[in-house]
Every structure is written in structure tokens, then in C-alpha cells.
From TrEMBL:
Primary location group: membrane
Listed name of the protein: Mitochondrial carrier
Subcellular location: Membrane
Ranges for the Solcar repeats: 4-106
Keyword Ligase: no
Species of origin: Ceriporiopsis subvermispora (strain B) (White-rot fungus)
Amino acid sequence: MEAFDTILFLSVFLFSLAISLLIIVPLTGAVVRLRANYNPKGLQLDPEGNVEPHTGPIVTSFFGMLRRVKRLEGWAGLYKGLMPTLLATAFLSVFAVMALDATNPSIHGRVDLPTTSPLESMLYGLVYLIVSLPAIIITDRAITTPYKLPSFSPIKALRVLLTPTERRKPWILYATPGLFVAEVLHIVYVAFILGTLRIWLVPAPGEDQSRFETFHPVKFSIFIIIQTLSVTIMCPLEVMSTKLAIQRNHAVPEYNSVEQEAEDAITDYADLEEYSPDEEVIGLRSEKDPYLGFIDCFKRIVDEEGWKTLYRAWWITMLGLISQALGAAAQTVAPTP
């Protein structure tokens, strides 16, 4: 009987995971592409002072990017990043349940941590970040690469997604300028700041309290408003994280070093087809002039692309924040088993 229950549980889990991936991967891919697209306001200069042409298509909406991906890359393009997402989700789900005692692991680097104090949740999140950061980088790069990566040849795919320096020193992924800072700020804001406000405004009932006794509509309304306004902080962090994650690390961030590694990597993808050889889905910032850190990334995005770039797909972030608030309320008033 126990064996049957185990098989049934695994079957239901795998089926729900498959359905989730079929829905989430195309949507996540559109968000990543929209936020990664480099679309400067005017002409830019390369490191040698020459004028660079306009980079990146002008796509300003989530659904516009979704249609563009479908038109240029087809259904296969919509599911770019499926394999790393699947592998990362499986591994991180097991890690979250076994190591972090999480109850509801989810897709693409997100996890519902155990209900604890804000400080403990923040520490859980930091540990989870250390484990998941390479997966986030690889997945975002798999989504934005123009090449058709082999699904069942991970070594070949990684040779395309990672630079020779990153393959020799994989720990350098954690030193990607500004990325770790952006992710840590994201965790601190969600787990510590919003977590503290949640305890004050939407507290869980005590042992001798009714589930409705601690729920106050006014306080919950304030929490909803705070969660909604948090998009002004969360969305820029998510946009910057995406742009920094796809920025590849080279031995030395100088022109000659980047050129040399680019030449060495030509053989890695010489036999790979491109999804859309005639027209790129998105434009990427030149690796010869990388972001130097978190602050530099913020300033350059505002100066080169405009502040509105920091709020691409803002409504998706806002819906996520509101759903978290509703989830907190549901847990508060849910009947005890």
C-alpha cells in the first residue's frame, strides 16, 4: 500500500510539474526576453569610440514580445530554456524540501519557504540563492541565446552558454558584477521587510484564537496596498537581475580579452543552427562594454535606455505580489485541520 501511495504521489507530482512547465516556460521566456532586450535611446559608442547602430527591436509589451517570439522562432522558441528549467526545478525542489523544509517548491528559482520569523526566512532565502544562482544564470542565457541548443547534450549546451573563463572557474558566476547584490536585495526586501509587515498586519492566529480573530480587513487592506506599491522596488531589481544574469564573465573585462574568448568559442557553436538567422528576436548589450556593478547597471539603464526600462512587465511583478498577499490572508483564515 505504501508503494502504491508513493507511485501515486510521484505520478501526480510529475503530471502537475509537466502542466506547470507547459504554461510557465513560454510566459517566463517572454518576460526574460522583454527585460533583457537592449534598446538604447540614441546612438552609442563602442570602446574604440566608433558609433554603434541602434541595437534591439522596439518591443514595449509582454504580449508583443510573446507574439514576436512565436513569429520568429515558432513553438520551439517559446519553449527555449525548458530543459534547464526542468532540471533546476527538480533539483531545487528536492533541496528545498530536504534541506530547507519548504512545503511548496515552485518554478524557476522561486520557493515557498517555511513559515518562520522574517530573519529566519531571509537566511533560508540566502542559502537557497547560493544554490540556485547558477541555475538562474544558465536558464536566462538559454532563453536569450539565438542558437538551438541540444536538449540532451548538456556539455555542448554549457560550452555555448558559458565563457571559457566561466567553465574553468565556475565559481566566477557568483562574482557576476551586481547580480548577487540585486538578488540579495530582493530576498531582504521580500523576506525581511515585507515579512515583518505581514506579521504586523496579517498575523497568524495563536493556539487559543479563532482563525478570524486576528484577521482585520483594514490592516489587510493596508498590506495589500504596501504589496502593490512594492512593485516600484521589486520590478527594477528583477529587470536588473535579468540583464546582469545574461552578462557573461571573461578573464579580463577588456576588449582584447573578450575578442579572444569570442574567437575561441566560435567552434563551440559553429555547427548549431539559429532560430532566426535573418532577424534577431532581441538585441543584447555588447560584452565589450559590460555593466561594472549594481550601481553602474542602474545608472546605465536609466541613461542609455530610460527609466521606463526598469519597469518592463511591471504588472506581472505586481500580480505576483498581490497573490502573495492573498495567500497570506488565506493561510490566516484557513480552517485548522
